[in-house]
Amino acid sequence: MKPLLSKTTKPFIIYVLIILVISIPVYYFVVDAIWKGELDDHNITIAEKTAYEFNSLKLSDAELEKSINLWSKIQPGTNIEKVPFNYLKRDSFFTIDKQKIFAAKPEIERYRCMKKVVYINKKPFLFTIETNIEESQETVGAIALITIFFFILILVGLLFLNKKLSTSIWLPFRNTLDQLKTFNLNKQTKIEFGKTDITEFEELNQSLSKLIEHNISAFKTQKEFTENASHELQTPLAILKNKLDILLQNENLTEKQYQIAEEMHRALTRSSRINKNLLLLAKIDNSQFDKTEVFQFDELLLQSLGILQEHFELKNIAVSKNILPDIKVCGNRSLTEVLINNLILNAIRHTPANGSISVKLENSSFEIANSGTEKLDHGLLFKRFSKLSADSSGSGLGLAIINEICKFHQWTISYKFENNQHTFSVTF
Fold first, then answer.
1. Distances (CA, A) of 241 to 60, 265, 266, 314
2. Which 3 state secondary structure label does DSSP give 313?
3. DSSP percent split of the chain into helix, strand, coil, nearest 5
4. Residue 253 exposed, middle or buried by CB count within 10 Å (0-12, 13-18, 19+)
5. Do 172-287 and 293-427 come out as alike in CATH topology?
6. Does domain 172-287 have CATH number 1.10.287?
């Protein structure tokens, strides 16, 4: 990705470069045309001045002829010859290329020519003059070099000024971006953007403020609803569960009635577990837990493994342990216990019978791996109520709770599937 400044500067530079390339031939034709026009005016002046000087001498015809012959010999590129009346109705201007024979090294050069009829002693003479215009190419070349020099100068100055000005011009945008990067919707804190005199940035800040305020309000309403609903559901769920327990103990129930009551009891137990998990997620999102306690992670891990030993035995799962002693972490003890239990239960749920589970604890990481046959979907891994297996006993919130607990502690959780092993790693 490229910064906005480079995306705007590059087209400008290319545009200026194209204009520069086009301008060089334009310079050539314009300067050449101006040069030819000036030479034509100069040649007319020479012709008229020459005629005036000859007329002012008041020479006889013989003396005039000798003087004209002498003039034509000593003036290279100039010729005066007698012509009849009405020989040339108007002045003629043209350009020729010919070899410069009087130079040390003969070479082909361009000449601007003029044929004009002048009157000397009241007789018509054809005045022909050739003036070298090769210098126009050198002039155009010099203009091109100067133009390129100033283009480079403008380019360097433009890049320098853009770099300097962008620091101050884009400062309000950078400040807004920095505040957005640190914004956390869970904290429900409104961002106060700084004032700026740039209209676009001010409109951006106002729009962002309204959007954030609306999102905070919606998020707060959603969290309050989740928490209140979970709290209010606890009591009726507990009452229903208690009534079902009493009903199941009734000896007068038929087999069919008992099965129906048992199914209701399982569904109610799952609903109660989902309710508790949703309430836990709401409390984590609202930062209602303390995370400054220092405790022994290895003790919690060994305690959970002991409590869940029965689950391992039911599926005949072999458990290998590599747990370093005296591993202390700073966080919330109860949430960490939930994280450990959920990871172990998730491993048990996805381990086939007679499979294996390995638990590893080091100074800065906790890892649990279990045997399996198919990789879990990364896209659904930590989503709430996502089903990663056909097992319907889970609430669909276990991995989501694990992810939220890691975020709360600023830990990192990762998943990989290698050599038919599911591996979840938590880095402290």
1. 145, 7, 9, 26
2. helix
3. 60, 20, 25
4. middle
5. no
6. yes
First to last CA, the chain: 32
- Strand pairing report for 421-427 and 412-418: antiparallel
Cβ atoms 359, 341 nearer than 8 A: no
**Residues in CB range of 95: below 8 A, 6 or more apart:** 36, 110, 111, 112, 113, 133
Instruction: Kindly report the pTM of this predicted structure.
Output: 0.49
Q: Within 13 Å, how many C-alpha atoms sit on residue 259's CB side?
A: 3
Residues 266, 57: Cα–Cα separation, whole Å: 136
Q: Kindly state the tokens that stand for 383.
A: 């989503």
Task: Delimit the domains of the chain by residue range.
Answer: 4-157, 172-287, 293-427
Tokens linked to 370: 């279990």
As a whole number of angstroms, the distance between CA 311 and CA 294 comes to: 29
pLDDT per residue, tens digit, the chain (428 aa), is 566 666 677 787 788 788 877 877 787 788 778 888 888 998 999 899 989 988 888 888 888 888 888 887 887 778 888 888 888 778 899 888 887 665 566 677 888 899 999 999 888 999 999 888 765 567 767 777 887 888 788 878 877 887 777 777 778 888 888 888 877 766 666 777 878 888 888 888 888 888 888 887 877 777 777 667 666 777 787 788 788 888 878 878 788 888 888 888 788 777 777 777 777 777 777 677 788 889 999 999 999 999 889 888 888 999 999 999 999 999 899 899 989 998 998 888 888 888 999 999 998 899 999 988 888 877 778 777 666 555 545 556 778 888 888 988 889 999 988 888 889 999 98
DSSP 63-85: HHHHHHHHHHHHSTTEEEEE--T
Domain 4-157 has CATH 3.30.450: yes
Give the angle subtended at the CA of 295 by the CAs of 292 and 298, to the nearest 5°.
Answer: 140
* 136 three-state secondary structure: helix
Contact of 93 with 113, CB cutoff 8 Å: yes
Q: Does domain 293-427 have CATH number 3.30.565.10?
A: yes
DSSP state of 190: -
* Residue closest to 117 by CA, chosen among 92, 144, 150: 92
Radius of gyration of the chain (CA): 49
